[in-house]
Design goal:
By secondary structure, this protein is of the alpha+beta class. It has two domains: 1-160 and 214-226, no CATH class; 162-212, no CATH class. It has seven helices and 14 strands. Strand 7 (115-118) and strand 8 (125-130) form a beta hairpin. The chain is elongated, with a radius of gyration of 37 Å. The N and C termini lie far apart (96 Å). Bound molecules: zinc ion (ZN) (3 copies). The site of one zinc ion (ZN) has 8 residues, from loops.
């Protein structure tokens, strides 16, 4: 067990950075999740799919409990369900800039408010906002999020942000009939030619320009109070202890309810009494004989 952790202190305050990838259910590619999104789009196949709250809970329960498993500066990666879905996370002794890793001024932005922090070292603007309700319902210790934009009106940003070039339509010539075709990033990779009906498979160069690969970025959380894992463990322990006590009480009650072995005692007493009476009778008889 690491020595310099904030381990299990009831008010443990910690900052934990994360890098998250989820597996595209269609093509199996890992898709970077750079924000508290409930829907993401795969760069490779353009498939849009949801990231469930269960997935979020599983992904973030490890960073939440990092103060029990990691030392400051250490990091770890947890993969989920044997898939490409994984979270890499690290415990920080103080909030640091996701870009240059310099220490950020503490409490620059009040916890519970939305705003931004300016990195004193590289000048990067680090957005920050309070953990949304759906997240605190899953992980009560999660307080504040840094380094990503807040989800729009509580909803996730559903589309990959495209740069200006990628948003522009791209022209190409149909390899079969030579007609001019134009595409936008909304297109699937296989596009029908509107003139000859041939299925045109978009070449890599065009596809990549339409879908710039989203880079996995680093963002971080402020957690306060015992982790969900810790609370669950304690509750399980308390339940086991209560069950043990109930079991013990039951055993004691059973013992108390058992009738005491009275007959045996009274029989024994009776035998002693009879023996005494016989002895006294013999002594009396002897005395009466002797006194004659
Ligand atoms: Zn995909
Ligand atoms: Zn910086
Ligand atoms: Zn054509």
């Amino acid at each position: 067990m690491p020595m310099n952790t904030a381990q299990d202190s009831a008010q443990a305050l910690r900052y934990v950075w994360v890098e998250i990838l989820v597996e595209c259910p269609k093509c199996g590619d890992p898709v970077p999740v750079n924000g508290l999104e409930t829907n993401v789009v795969c760069d490779n196949c353009n498939h849009e799919f949801p990231v469930s709250t269960e997935t979020w809970q599983t992904l973030l329960s490890h960073p939440d409990n990092a103060y029990n498993t990691l030392a400051y500066g250490e990091q770890s990666t947890t993969s989920m369900w044997g898939s490409a879905t994984k979270v890499t996370y690290g415990l920080m002794s103080q909030p640091t800039c996701p870009t240059c890793h310099a220490a950020l001024p503490p409490d620059h932005t009040q916890v519970g408010t939305q705003g931004s922090i300016s990195c004193p070292s590289c000048g990067a603007t680090i957005p920050t906002f309070p953990a949304p309700d759906w997240l605190t319902a899953l992980l009560p210790s999660c307080r504040q999020v840094y380094g990503i934009d807040p989800p729009r009106d509580g909803k996730a940003t559903t589309k990959v942000k495209l740069d200006e070039d990628a948003a522009k339509p791209i022209a190409m010539v149909c390899p079969q009939c030579g007609a001019g075709l134009t595409f936008t990033s909304a297109e699937q990779r296989l596009v029908p030619c509107t003139y000859c009906g041939a299925e045109v498979y978009l070449p890599d160069a065009i596809w990549k320009r339409l879908h710039p690969v989203k880079i996995k970025s680093r963002w971080f959380f402020r957690f306060e109070g015992p982790s969900k894992t810790s609370v669950t463990k304690q509750q399980r322990k308390a339940r086991a202890r209560a069950e043990e006590w109930a079991e013990q009480d039951k055993r004691l009650e059973a013992l108390a309810a058992e009738p005491p072995p009275k007959e045996a005692t009274s029989n024994w007493l009776l035998q002693v009494f009879i023996a005494c009476v016989i002895i006294i009778a013999i002594v009396l008889v002897l005395f009466s004989f002797l006194s004659k």
